[in-house]
Write a structure and sequence with these properties.
The complex is a heterodimer of chains A (493) and B (1071). Chain A has helices at 9-30, 48-70, 84-88, 97-115, 122-143, 165-184, 202-219, 225-237, 260-267, 278-286, 292-295, 350-362, 370-385, 391-396, 401-406, 410-424, 430-440, 467-470; strands spanning 74-76, 146-147, 162-163, 247-249, 274-276, 345-348. Chain A has 493 residues and is mainly alpha-helical. The radius of gyration of chain A is 27 Å and the shape is globular. In chain A, 61% of the residues are buried. Chain B is 5% helix and 48% strand. Classes of the chains: A mainly alpha (493), B mainly beta (1071).
């Protein structure tokens, strides 16, 4: 027996009402997707230390090791193996993922966010532009052609194209010239302590900008002397100030605030991976240079009697000797010595500033006294290393003043200046020293690494594009071998 | 959608007033035809309805049924039998056994019982007996080899170790690919959160799906494709394991108490094969002339690149208090093997089941106490309580509660390359060093003295692994409650309303401890071979809280049209909320501890590092409908539709629908009266098509800022820097226009049984396709970012699955069953966004595991040796050494080309013998263990002649670029393995054959039990993961070990802890 279905209107209405209330609440119930873990916006001045620390991480760690190996200051310790591929010249794209990421995705993108933020003060923007110029120079000097015109605009260009190195250099000068009036703006609020390099001292930033511009134009001196000369002559017409102090970040012993290379050594279990290369040790010894003992720690007295202070570049396998001098804590490279933590990272050094000026004068593009600037460079280096009075060294070392005095041609003068700059940069500025060697071929006493596994006579003249670009950028320009020079570089050796 | 719910609610309202016919009560006993023994747990259902019960421990049942009802009796491994209810109301049935897999009742979506024959998709079921046969405390691992289409990988096979289970290849490029775990209708969390900073320094704390005690499980039904789980929504797009826990028998005359006690021993399954020709030392010299430096001249070395063994008594190690120890310079073949001890585990489960006509309960307590194969500080303890209760209330209400509490306390040794990596340090032991005798850390030659801050251990490059075990600890403490409350209302025989609220909540607290030390060598020899050994120490506390609440309201109506058509319609509403909070804090990562030996965040040298402090909350509201149609006993059709609204998607785009349809045709029903088809006992064709929509993780829609950390390759710069704070833009570009992703699947299959079901087959072919995936794709860093959240990418899995089972012998005394599975799955990453050729899912700097366009999922990508077209290695003519490729190459996927298994059960009188083998063929893994033993010169590859030989099967290229076989140019084996060999050469064949489980048990008969106070007694010996066979190229590790737990990063032996074989004795007794 079936009974008729009966519809209870009251109950239906009640339930309908409950359902309706439930549904209007549904959207509200689901509207919980605001990220509680991270802020949606921050003050632009908070981004400046990010940019500065990222560039310092690249110069002071990844490029520090590559540079010091390829400038033949340091080589792989036979007792460890972390960096042997650098001596083997067998680096691959993945080795460069990290510095590339730090340049673009940490330093440059945050610099751009400062520049594009209307709340940023003039001085803050000015510093950001200088950091941007510095970052792009770092990138192009390492990798050659790099993304610039389409970089850092992900909503427009998800696959940024690569601009030629020449175009990148043009932009570097544009950024510096945009920065100068902003740096000189007196109505602007100073970034103060948020500026990790000069603590808001804008006069120092102007000097930094001028020195960077000089460095950048000199980089083109051989490939494009016309541009270099015009740029430098124009620069000198502005009565520029140049750096007389190191532009550095001062690291401390606090965990996470240490010198980046030392911090990496700690993370690697305080293994002493890098040791002295005979290339630079022999050169220092030949000149009886007191800085040798400052850049390198001596081997402990308990070492086997057959130990050496140094091994040939890449000699970690063929050399049976196991104890080799380590770079000193002064350059942040003694893994077991906590005082390495406070070693500075020099974005531009005072010595470098003098040698750049000396070269500009030697080439006849800048004004001043070559000898005085050359001696000032050596003196600045002795001061920075605590190597005492440089007078004897300057006057008697074969690569000291005698080399400059004996130089007749511009090129010989440049050779003396760059060689002397090479000594000053040991351990502190490996990347810049290797880069200047790639530009000038000086110093002339480099050897091919004993551990090289690439064809005889080939040496690293560029860094490889990172694997991260290879696998994600449709405009990846193809892998360029490590022994191919960048646009401004010489085919060496 | 509003309409749907309204309709369902109105439907509900209408039905309340309906009146139904009078029910009657039937009762009876179900026995086995073979032995006349009562069978407990048999499902008794009224045909064409959801009315049903189970037999109690005495095989008896009572049920209230409509008039003219036909009862259907079904039970795993018995033929389903139908019986009309006679006037007497007593139904006694004898069931005959049949080959596995047919006519079972299986648990499908939302915990609904369905007869297997009605399903349009593959849904194999594994019983408690099969799960517990091998004595493995992991229910997931115990499924290995029993389910075609499942790829199960058990990292260490230890209690608490990770198990990954992927059905049909998985559907997601970056998301979770594991099957959803559902216990009694409620999904449970199966997170795999490894301890340590990354898989390179991993501590395997297991995956939470392994928390459940297999003894509490009645059965697991595997729903493989999304079709099977369309009603679970997004999370079941990778299939689901429907776990049904035991319930109390109704109508039990007495309390049934079951004690299941297992004692297990374990030992390391596979160690690398070592060379035994050369001892401690290193080499100078060239490819043709050896320059051995060994013995006391290199007493601190981890290298076995010294001279050939000569058996001479020689000094070794440090010179302490004027004495240097001596030992023969000869190989110690078992020095590594004897480092490990025999592990032991005691697993006890006490279950109490009872019930009366209206109520039933199952109460179980269990404990698992184990110590592993490492000599100390390697233990895992788990305690659990389960209560499942059900009560039939007045007015057609039924209520049930399932409750489970687990407590886990473990101390797990770390794998990986960190200072705490035991395997990493152990594997660097030279062949002549008696490491296995150096466990006494207070011995001045073996240990470390924290009073004098000196050490006497021989090695300068490694730390005594005994010291590591004793001083580095990784403690885990988990408290977990899972359960659900059900209230069912059945106003009419044709209508059932179920409300269920389930919860899964746990706290996982971890403490990772590394000691601070600064040891100088005690050595007085003046050799300078030893240097200081330092560690700044650290203390990390990780607190993870996961809480998930699920609500389901399900209304099911059934109706019969005429005699032949049955319909049922289910309407449901599902609401869930999941919240995860992760709080990881440690002492300053770089500065470490101030005071040695004190493990507290207050002891941080430098600012405390907040590694993670995140709360993620997501919610989902779903509505679903499931319509079932059946015609007679042979045509079945099911259609489902679901709408989900997810909090993780943009609000204007947060709602999405997806359908499924499946059908089954039991053609043997039409042939059963045709004598020429007598050989066919059962035949079914099935097919299904389904879509599943998926949401994403919370907070993917916007780009945010974060406190700055600038990472180098290893170290980093952190903020605040002194007093300077800093922030940076996040590395992932959010996307406010995300769309839900869709997985679609097609399946066709057949189930066939022949010769009175003595031989049966189950075959499926499937295609799963996931499109428009929500991916965090890598974008060029030159954009200023690293990842972008997009809808892109397509991954396809195609495959076949075959299960065969047969009973070659069946007599009164002997039953011999054989069964096997075959699985072949081809995955293919069909597309990625423009410019992106691969998405990295794991690996490290020099070796990535990726999803690469046009490749199978999980492809290895690394630089390897150059080879010519014939596969010969190209060498550098000057050095004789192989040349590396200039770019990374794709080297194969971790997924096997095919899997197969073979098992057998042999019953002879009281004895049962069971053995199960499983095979994975093809697939590769990266073995850092290989890299390590090759580097230190202990691996088998480094044995034999080390000088003057050309690289095996090598060529050099002449000036015109042609390959010339190299028979003369020698290479230095030392140089090759210590500095030339590229990472890709450590990617090796992961194929294996395993004896997965074996057992022999003896069950007392009823006669034997008469004089004993037991209801049942079974005693047996068992083993699992017993034997392993690998190809010659893998002389290193069990290919199942993995440094990344159960995540997508598989095939990564980054000095992973070894897997173990287990064997023991089991006693099962009931009172």
């Amino acid at each position: 027996m079936n009974r008729k279905y009966r519809f209870n209107l009251k109950q239906a209405l009640f339930i309908g009402l409950v359902a309706a209330v439930g549904f209007s609440g549904c959207k509200k119930y689901l509207d919980i997707n605001q990220n509680p873990n991270n802020p949606a916006s921050v003050e632009p001045s908070l981004l400046l230390p990010t940019t500065q620390a990222a560039l310092s991480q690249v110069v002071g760690n990844s490029f520090q090791v590559f540079g010091n190996f390829w400038a033949q200051y340091w080589t792989q310790s036979p007792l460890a193996s972390q960096y042997k591929s650098m001596d083997q010249y067998s680096s691959v794209g993945t080795d460069f993922n990290s510095p590339w990421l730090n340049i673009y995705s940490v330093a440059l993108v945050n610099a751009d966010l400062i520049i594009n933020n209307t709340a940023s003060s003039d001085n803050l923007k000015g510093i950001a532009y200088i950091m941007k110029a510095y970052g792009y120079q770092l990138a192009t000097d390492a990798f050659g052609d790099v993304p610039l015109s389409q970089a850092l605009q992900p909503t427009k260009y998800i696959n940024p194209k690569y601009d030629t190195q020449q175009v990148v250099y043009d932009s570097i000068f544009v950024y510096i010239n945009k920065a100068l009036p902003l740096l000189n703006s007196t109505s602007s609020a100073s970034p103060g302590s948020q500026d990790m390099i000069f603590q808001g001292d804008m006069a120092q930033w102007v000097a930094f900008a001028n020195t960077l511009e000089l460095r950048a134009y000199l980089r083109l001196s051989i490939k494009d002397p016309t541009t270099a000369q015009a740029g430098i002559v124009a620069l000198y017409k502005t009565n520029p100030t140049f750096l007389t102090e190191d532009a550095t970040i001062t690291y401390t012993a606090t965990g996470g605030n240490e010198n980046p290379f030392y911090n990496e050594s700690v993370a690697l279990g305080e293994t002493q991976n890098v040791v002295a290369s005979s290339t630079v040790v022999d050169a220092f010894t030949k000149n009886n240079d007191p800085r040798l003992g400052k850049f390198f720690a001596t081997v402990s007295s308990t070492a086997p009697s057959d130990s050496l202070q140094s091994i040939p570049q890449g000699g970690f396998l063929i050399d049976a000797y196991k104890k080799v001098a380590a770079p000193s804590p002064l350059v942040g490279a003694t893994a077991t010595d906590p005082t390495s933590a406070t070693a500075p990272v020099k974005l531009i050094s005072a010595a470098e500033s003098y040698f750049l000026q000396a070269e500009a004068v030697a080439r006849g593009w800048g004004t001043g006294d070559v000898t005085a600037l050359y001696e000032a460079g050596i003196t600045a280096s002795f001061t920075a290393t605590g190597a005492g009075d440089p007078t004897t060294y300057i006057n008697t070392a074969p690569d000291g003043l005698p080399a400059l005095t004996a130089a007749v041609t511009v090129d010989d003068k440049v050779k003396a200046i760059i060689t002397q700059k090479y000594y000053a940069m040991c351990g502190f500025q490996g990347f810049e020293a290797w880069t200047e060697w790639r530009r000038t071929g000086y110093p002339t006493f480099f050897i091919t690494s004993k551990a090289s596994i690439i064809a005889a006579g080939q040496m690293p003249l560029r860094m490889l594009y990172p694997n991260s670009e290879l696998v994600s950028n449709s405009n990846y320009p193809g892998t360029i071998p490590i022994y191919t020079p960048v646009w401004w570089g010489l085919q060496l050796p | 959608m509003k309409k749907l719910l309204l309709v369902s609610l109105c439907f509900l309202m209408l039905s309340i007033t309906q009146v139904f016919a009078q029910d009657r009560t039937v009762s009876g006993t179900v026995t086995g035809k073979d032995d006349g023994q009562p069978i407990p747990g048999v499902t008794v259902k009224v045909k064409g309805s959801n009315i049903g019960t189970q037999t109690n421990s005495a095989g008896k049942f009572t049920l209230s049924v409509p008039p003219d009802a036909i009862l259907v009796f079904s039970f795993i491994s018995y033929a389903t039998t139908e019986q009309r209810v006679p006037v007497s109301g007593v139904v006694n049935v004898g069931l005959s056994t049949e080959a596995r897999g047919l006519s079972e009742v299986v648990v499908t979506s939302e915990g609904i019982n369905r007869e297997k024959r009605t399903l349009g998709y593959s849904a194999p079921t594994v019983s408690n007996a099969e799960l517990t046969e091998g004595g493995n405390p992991s229910a997931l691992t115990s499924l290995t080899g029993r389910i075609a289409g499942a790829n199960i990988t058990s990292t260490s096979n230890t209690p608490g170790g990770s198990t990954r289970i992927v059905l049909r290849g998985g559907s997601s490029i970056t998301g979770d690919n594991q099957a959803l775990l559902v216990v009694d209708g409620v999904p449970i969390d199966n997170s795999s959160i490894i301890g340590g900073a990354s898989s390179l320094t991993a501590v395997d704390f297991g995956n939470r799906g392994n928390d459940i005690d297999p003894n509490d499980i009645a059965s697991i039904t595997v729903l493989k494709g999304p079709a099977a789980a369309a009603l679970y929504g997004s999370r079941a797009s990778n299939g689901a394991l429907m776990i049904t826990t035991k319930s109390g028998a109704k109508n039990g005359k007495k309390l049934e108490i079951t004690l299941n006690s297992t004692n297990t021993l374990s030992s390391v399954l596979k160690l690398p094969t070592f060379q035994n020709e050369y001892g401690q030392g290193y080499m100078s010299g060239s490819a043709t002339s050896p320059g051995y430096v060994s013995g006391i001249n290199d007493a601190s070395d981890n290298f076995s690149w010294g001279g050939p063994f000569n058996g001479k008594e020689e000094p070794w190690g440090q010179d302490i208090d004027g004495v240097t120890q001596t030992k023969p310079y000869s190989a110690l073949p078992n020095n590594i093997k004897d480092f490990f001890k025999t592990g032991f585990a005691a697993d006890n489960n006490l279950g109490i089941a009872s019930g009366d006509e209206k109520n039933s309960f199952y109460l179980a307590i269990n404990s698992l106490n184990s110590s592993g194969v490492f000599p100390s500080n390697d233990n895992y303890n788990k305690y659990g309580v389960r209560f499942n209760g059900k009560a039939t209330l007045a007015n057609n209400f039924t209520a049930s509660v399932n409750f489970n509490y687990n407590k886990i306390q473990a101390n797990t040794p770390s794998g990986g390359q960190g200072a705490n990596g035991i395997w990493n340090n152990l594997m660097q032991t030279p062949r002549d060093i008696p490491i296995n005798t150096m466990g006494n850390i207070s011995n001045k030659y073996d240990g470390y003295n924290s009073l004098t801050n000196t050490y006497g251990f021989y090695g300068a490059f490694t730390v005594n692994p005994y010291y590591i075990l004793q001083n580095f600890t990784n403690l885990d403490d988990v408290n977990r409650v899972t359960g659900d409350v059900n209230l069912a209302y059945k106003p009419f025989s044709w209508l059932n309303i179920v409300e269920r609220v389930g919860v899964d909540t746990y706290s996982d607290r971890r403490k990772l401890i590394a000691p601070k030390y600064n040891f100088e060598p005690a050595d007085e020899s003046g050799s300078g071979l030893w240097g200081p050994i330092n560690n700044n120490g650290s203390y990390e506390v990780d607190q993870i809280n996961v809480s998930e609440v699920v609500h389901d309201l399900m209304v099911t109506a059934t109706h019969k049209f005429g005699d032949d058509f049955n319909t049922s319609l289910l309407l449901g509403n599902n609401i869930r909320e999941r919240s995860v909070s992760s709080n990881y804090t440690s002492t300053n990562t770089s500065g470490g501890l101030v005071v040695p030996g004190w493990y507290n965040l207050e002891n941080s040298n430098g600012p405390v590092d907040v590694i993670t402090d995140d709360i993620d909350i997501r919610r989902l509201v779903g509505f679903y409908a499931d319509l079932n149609l059946s015609y007679k006993d042979y045509l079945f059709l099911e259609g489902t539709v679901r709408n989900d609204r997810s909090s993780t998607l943009p609000l204007d785009n947060y709602s999405y629908y997806y359908p499924s349809v499946s059908g089954s045709f039991v053609f043997s029903e039409l042939l059963k009266n045709n004598s020429s088809f007598d050989f066919l006992s059962y035949g079914k064709l099935r097919s299904s098509f389904a879509q599943v929509g998926s949401d994403t993780d919370p907070y993917q829609l916007t780009t945010t800022y974060a406190k700055t950390t600038v990472n180098g390759s290893f170290g980093n710069t952190t903020f605040p820097f002194g007093n300077v704070p800093a922030y940076q833009i996040g590395s992932t570009l959010g996307n406010s226009t995300l769309q839900p992703e869709k997985t679609s699947s097609f399946e066709i299959g057949t189930e066939l049984a022949f010769l009175q079901s003595r031989l049966s087959f189950d075959f499926s072919y499937y295609v799963n396709d996931s499109k428009n995936q929500i991916l965090s794709i890598p974008i060029p860093n030159s954009t200023g970012y690293s990842f972008s959240v997009v809808n892109a990418g397509e991954i396809q899995n195609k495959g076949i699955e075959l299960t065969v089972s047969g009973t070659p012998i069946k007599t009164t005394d002997v039953t011999w069953n054989l069964f096997g599975t075959f699985t072949k799955n081809n995955s293919d990453v069909l597309s990625l966004p423009n410019g992106v050729s691969q998405v990295v899912i794991g690996g490290f700097g020099g070796m990535a595991i990726v999803a690469a366009k046009g490749m199978p999922y999980g492809e290895f990508y690394a630089v390897t040796n150059q080879t010519d077209a014939q596969g010969r290695t190209i060498i550098n003519q000057a050095t004789g050494q192989p040349m590396p490729t200039t770019e990374a190459k794709y080297l194969g996927s971790y997924d096997p080309k095919f899997q197969t298994s073979l098992g057998t059960d042999l019953k002879y009188k009281n004895f049962t013998l069971s053995v199960l083998f499983d095979v994975k063929h093809g697939g590769v893994l990266y073995s850092d263990t290989k890299s390590l033993v090759d580097f230190v010169g202990t691996g088998i590859e480094t044995g034999g002649p080390r000088f003057g030989q050309p690289f095996p099967n090598s060529v050099y290229q002449n000036s015109s670029g042609q390959s010339v076989p190299n028979t003369k140019i020698p290479y230095s084996v030392y140089t090759y393995y210590t500095s030339v060999i590229p990472t890709g050469m450590d990617v090796i064949d992961a194929s294996y054959i395993k004896m997965r489980s074996a057992s022999i048990s003896y069950t007392l008969t009823r006669d034997q039990l008469k004089s004993l106070p037991f209801g049942a007694l079974t005693i047996g010996v068992f083993g699992n993961n017993l034997f392993l066979w690998t190809p010659k190229s893998n002389a290193y590790v069990d290919p199942e070990v993995n440094s990344s737990g159960a995540g997508n990063e598989q095939g990564l032996d980054f000095a992973a802890n070894p897997s173990v074989r287990n064997y023991g004795i089991n006693l099962k007794v009931s009172f």
